[in-house]
Amino acid sequence: MAKKVINIRWNAVLLFLFFSYDLIFSALFSIIKNELFCNIFIDTIIFIILFLTIIKNKKKLKLDAIIVIIVSIMVFLLSYIMYPQYRISMLYNESWNIFKMIFNLHGGLFAYLIIRTEDSFDDLIRDLKISIIPVWLCYTLKTIGGVSFNSVSAISGNIITRNYNQTYGFKFLYVALMLTYIGLSEKKKIFLAISIIPLLQIVMYASRTAIIAYVAFIVLYFIFNQEGKNKNIKRCIYIALFALIAYIVQTNYFLNILTNFFQSHGLSSKIIDAFINDSNNIDGGRLYLWSSSYEQIKNNFWGLGVYYDRYIYNVYVHNIFLELLLNYGWIFGAGIIAYIIKIISTMFIKAPNKEKTVFLIFFSLSMIRLMLSYSYWYDINFWIMIAIYSNYIQYCKQKKKVGDNDEKK
Predict the structure, then answer these.
(1) What span, in angstroms and rounded, lies between the C-alpha atoms of 123 and 132?
(2) Is there a single domain that holds both residue 351 and residue 307?
(3) Does residue 121 lie within any of the structural domains?
(4) Is 71 domain-assigned?
(5) Does residue 136 fall inside a structural domain?
(6) Which residues lie below 8 Å from residue 25, measured CB to CB, with a gap of 6+?
(7) What is the Cα–Cα distance from 41 to 125, expressed in whole angstroms?
(8) Distance from C-alpha of 313 to C-alpha of 278, rounded to nearest angstrom
(9) In this predicted structure, what is the pLDDT of residue 153?
(10) Where in the sequence is the domain holding 172, given as residue range(s)?
(11) Contacts of 291 (CB under 8 A, 6+ apart)
C-alpha cells in the first residue's frame, strides 16, 4: 500500500507565521517577559521556514526581493556615513531604530520577500484569507485587556498621547477589508455581515484615516469592477452616492446619534469624539511638517538622506511623496514617485478584476494612510502592495512566454 505524501507549502506556512507574529509574541511574552528573547525565538522559527521554502524550490527566492533589501541597506549606510548626526535616530531612538522597525523578519522589506514567494494569485488569496484569523484574534484579545493609546514624540520634543491607536485600527481594517473582499467577490453575504464587527472595532479604537481607507476601498472597488455598456454611468452614480454618504456621516447630527448609541451601551468612540470636538491637534503639526519639509526640498535638489525628518522634527513628515523627495531629492525622489504612480495605474487599468481587487486591499491599507501619516519604511502593507505588482508582472511574463512557445509549436 502506497504511503500518502503530504505536500507542505512552506511559503504558505511562512506567510501565516508572518501574520501571526504579534499573536505569538504576545503569548510568549506573557510567559517569559523578555522582549529580546521573544523576538529572537520567533525570528529563528521564521528563518527556518524561509530556509525550508528556498531549499524546496530555489526559484521562490526572487532576485528583485534580494535587490530591494540590499538597496535599502545601502541607502541607510550612505545616509549613516554622509550624515553622522542622523545616527542617533537610526540606532538609539527606540521609536525609529532601524533594526527594530525596518531590518527584521517582521517588517515591510521581509513582507515583500514573502509575498514574492507566492506562485499564483489563487495561492496568495487563499493564504491571505487564513491570515485573518491570527490578526483578528490577537488584537481583539488586546482590546479585551485594555487598549493602550499611542504615545508619540511631537515636533517640540514633548510626548503626546493620542486618543486612538493606529496599530489596532489598521489591523482591524485589514480584517474588515479581507472579509468585505470575500463577501463581494465570492458573493457570500455572511462575510459581509461578519465584517461589521471589525468595522465597529475600527470606529471604537482607530483614527479617522482608517475609516477613510475603508470608504476608499468600497468606492474604488465598485468604480473599477463595473462592466457592460452603462459602466461609466454606474461609476458616476457610485461616486455621487458615496460622496453623499461621506457628507452625511461627517455631520455632527449623525455623529451625535452614534455617540449616544455607544454611550448607552457603555462604550465610546475615539474617532467620533475627535470629529465632534475637533480635539485632534495633529492636523496643525502635520501642516507645519508639510510646509517646512517643502521648503527644505526646494533648497536641497539632491535630497537630505533618509531619516533627515526624524533627526530634525523627531517624527516622519506624514506624507510619502514629501518623504521621498526629502530623502532622495528631485531626480531620484521624483523617479520613485513616478514608479509608484505607474504601479497603481497599471494595476487599476490593466490588471484583471481578481488581481486588481487584491492590490486594492493593500492600496487602501497603505497609500491612504501614507498620504496623511506614517512612513513607507514601516508600513508592511505598502511593501505587500509593491510585491503584488511584481507578482502580477511576473505572471504576465510567464503567460506571454507560454503563449509564444505554443505559437512556435
Answers:
(1) 15
(2) yes
(3) no
(4) no
(5) no
(6) 38, 39, 42
(7) 28
(8) 24
(9) 47
(10) 147-276
(11) none
Output the nine-digit C-alpha cell for 163.
486618543
Q: What angle do CA 294, 299, 301 make, to 5 degrees?
A: 100
Do residue 258 and residue 289 come from a single domain? no
Taking each helix axis as running N to C, give the angle between helix 121-144 and helix 21-32, from 0 to 180 degrees, rounded to the nearest 10: 40
- Coil, strand or helix: which one is 152? strand
Position 280 scores a pLDDT of: 45
Clarify whether residues 332 and 406 are in a common domain: yes
**Grid cell digits, residue 98:** 532601524
Asked if residue 264 lies in contact with residue 396, where contact means CB atoms within 8 angstroms, the answer is no
Domain final residue, candidates 247, 276, 305? 276
Angle at 363 between CA 200 and CA 300, to 5 degrees: 120
**320 with 358, same domain?**
yes
Half-sphere exposure of 397 (CA within 13 A, CB side): 6
Say if residues 17 and 46 touch (Cβ distance below 8 Å). yes
Distance, CA of 336 to CA of 344 (rounded, Å): 13
Are 398 and 299 members of one domain? yes
Burial of 215 per CB tally in 10 Å (0-12, 13-18, 19+): middle
Same domain, 248 and 303: no
Instruction: Identify whether residues 151 and 240 lie together within a single domain.
Output: yes
Q: Which of 243, 214, 239 is nearest to 226 (CA)?
A: 239
What whole-number distance in Å separates Cα of residue 129 and Cα of residue 80? 40
* C-alpha span between 249 and 69 (Å, rounded): 42
Instruction: Determine the 3-state secondary structure of 161 from DSSP.
Output: strand
Let me know: does 264 contact 157? Beta carbons within 8 Å.
no
**Domain assignment of residue 31, yes or no:** no
Domain count, the chain: 2
Question: Are 167 and 225 within one domain?
Answer: yes
Indicate the SS3 state at residue 159: strand
Judged against a pLDDT cut of 70, whether residue 271 lies above it is answered with no
The amino acid that residue 308 corresponds to is Y
pLDDT of 205-222, one tens digit each? 877 788 889 988 998 898
Which cell is 383 given? Answer: 511593501
Contact predicate 149/165, CB 8 Å: yes
Among 276, 309, 343, residue at a domain's last position = 276
pLDDT at residue 251 in the model:
59
Whether residue 41 has pLDDT greater than 50: yes
Q: In the predicted model, is pLDDT for residue 108 greater than 70?
A: yes
**pTM of the predicted model, to two decimals?**
0.87
Q: How far apart (Å, rounded) are the C-alpha atoms in residues 269 and 170?
A: 16
